[in-house]
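Possible race condition, two jobs.
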Amino acid sequence: MAGNPRELDAAIAVTRFGLGAKAGEIAAASGDPRGWLKAQIRAEGAEAFATGGETAAQRFAEYREFRRERLMARRAGAAKGGDAKGSGEDPVETTRRFIRQDAGQDVLARTRLAATTDAAFRERWALFWANHFTVSAIKAQTATLVGPYENEAVRPHVFGRFADLLGAVETHPAMLLYLDQAQSIGPNSRAAQLAGRRAGPQADGAPPRPAGLNENLAREILELHTVGVDGGYAQADVTEFARALTGLSLARPNEPQAELVVFRQPAHEPGARTVMGKRYAAGGKEQAGAILADLAAAPQTARFVCTKIARHFVADDPPPALVARLEKAWLASGGDLARVAEALVDAPEAWAPQPAKFKTPYEFVVSSYRATGGAPQGPRFGPQVNQALGGLGQRPFGAPSPKGWPDEAAPWAASDALVKRMQFAQGLAAAVGPNVQDPNALAAATLGARLSPAAATAIRRAESRPEAVALLLMTPEFQRR
């Protein structure tokens, strides 16, 4: 790699910590690469992207009304002796069309923000936390809530205290719906006893089955969001934590509540709880809050999450010294994420010259837009962005499980995936390439001191400007960060 150390650090700051270089960005970072990154850390968090001004509560109310109208249409059709679907439309396709109205524009707005922002380290930091606390659109009832969830619960807190971020995401309506918490009822609660009396004994004369305790949210908080699978908890802790969370639910459509998220004391499992060796007194929502606060402060959480941060930014197998630095900053500051971000920027392990991270499809698409100035604009680009990311294997807002999208290279670097990347690169290059006056200058501005002589030669020898741009986007230097 050519250039002096500061030039290389500037390229690393923009392409590894950020989301890929826009025109002039590496030059802007070259004076003080670390200071340039730290200037993007701010108490108010990351920018929100446009969601049409609608909150998650408004989106969910619209979804409830849509479902109510669909149900009424089916009932009307059945009453007339006709199609039980009502209008005869495919209900699945009708639901998908409803979802696309909001979710598609959220994806476009989020991608446009990433492609144009001048604070790409701040945006990458926010994207890390959104993936850590995944809510996926694979469920119809959460599909239109993912955008507002990220704006309301994640982005405002990404440089604040981890405990505040944890509390915001776990009590957001999108998370409660995604992990089925809204239906969880304490088996010995007043609500369960009332439901049992109404249901009566089972057909075989056995007592009524207890109302459903759902452990999904408790399990994912422990396994994925805080202490990690090796954090020292057992199945009994999951069950106890799930009991503490009972009562946390959503307001019913006709319920006179100012907020969508409510706490129903009659559904809360009575009694004290013991989670990971600590006893929590009987109570209401304060019981779950106390457990969350202790999980946020647990040293296992610092180790688990700091390892994920190091893995995301630096290497699939993160250097132990880097994890230790981040963990030290976390524990010393009480989980102040701004201090952790500063420790990441200051860590020498984060500035290794050789790039060790392979870009995810979203990172590849966004960095391609940033390099070429081809940020998606206008409604017609929404389907194109969705189609491109879906074709590359990373469906927008569609992580396959609560674990989120993988950070490691293996899922993204298969030969067929590279072919699809080439197709995207060729398509984008065909659109923007004719307007690129000097592909060699574009390559230098995009990769800076990371541009290898071999890549520069291949781009210089391209037969056309579109071909040169496509080659740039497919260089090993561009595919890695």
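Job #2 (started ~2 s after job #1):
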Amino acid sequence: MKRILILGSKGMLGQELLRVFQHDKKYDVTAWDREDIDVTQFDALYRRVSDMWPDVIFNAIAYNAVDACETDDDEYAKARMLNSDFPGELARAAKAVDAVLVHYSTDYVFDGERPQYPEGKNPGCCGSGCAGCMYKGPDETLPYYSYHEDDIARPLSRYGHTKLKGEQNVMKNVNRHYIIRLSKLFGKPAESVLGKRSFFDVMRELGETKKEVQAVDGEMSKFTYAPDLAKTSKEIVENNLAPGIYHVANDGAATWYDGVKEFYKILGIKTKVVSVPPETFPRPAKRPSSSVLKVTKIKNLRHYSEALKEYLEK
């Protein structure tokens, strides 16, 4: 039996990782959350991991108060600790016991501008956005850019910078790693007291109590259903894919407005949805205008509308 360690096991993603592994008899699963370990105490973390000697570690711990860390230096320090420093130390611990580390990152490492490949890795596209551009999608007219796994990351916010640094620390400190980028995560509410509510949970409540709701028709990206992400994470490890960065998100690029319209359509909610620009809701942290994660290393996940239907059924 392979030994699996899941950190952040009561979060929206962590609880789904626990679910897909604990029902598989091939695995011996250990799940830790904030009451089980203080991951900022690196010496203790190292000892606990060494004592357990896991085969695979899933790090579903992250600081995600995007706007708070943009304006508050104390919050920014927390973000650096959990998103940058801790993943690097966890990577050291994983290397010491020869474990595979699966670490989760974000589309906010991109800036929404024209994607650029690192020097020597350009696949043939000039990057100028001409007709037939590989970044523009199959019909060559989509009004947004999509990012490949190897495109140069250029975050706009403090939060994005901490997540990018976390990626870099993982890559530097352990060879056997999978860095999985996701975007607009939704799913069953987290068991953790610090867990955020899903965007769709909030919009359902508004749709059932308001005659009209406003939704941002911008910040194009993809939604990611937590159970699909957990299942795909398991498949990546089990298939022994090459180490590196993987984009995992449900199919169907959408703005927040698109998502609400689709959600209300499935629910049969008649509340009017008004399209508004991002400036309608001023936020301290800058968001990329487009951060669509192009999935190139694995098969595409089902469309987010199908995932939404399953979420509602459950």
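DSSP finds nine helices and 16 strands in the chain.
Logs attached separately.
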